[in-house]
Amino acid sequence: MEKILEQVLMELKEIKEGQVKIQVDINAMKEDIEQIKMDGKITKEQTAILTEFKTETFQNISDIKDTLKFLLHKEIETEKEIFALKQIKTK
Fold it and tell me: Which listed residue, of 18, 23, 57, 91, carries a Cα 20 to 30 Å from 34's Cα?
């Protein structure tokens, strides 16, 4: 009877040790999950910043293109006027 009692106590001890190991693993997983959540939040924030930067950059490029088109147009008009004045001068 005493041997059976010792065996039961030994098995209970092993079960408790197993529970402690499981609890340590669970705590480690909880920490990992919190880190993953934090990384996800940081990734979202960085994505939002990059999206805003991309939008602003496209708008700036569009503005630059419009300015260049305008300047090219004005240059052509100016050259036409110079040509017309030269034509008048040579007559």
Answer: 18
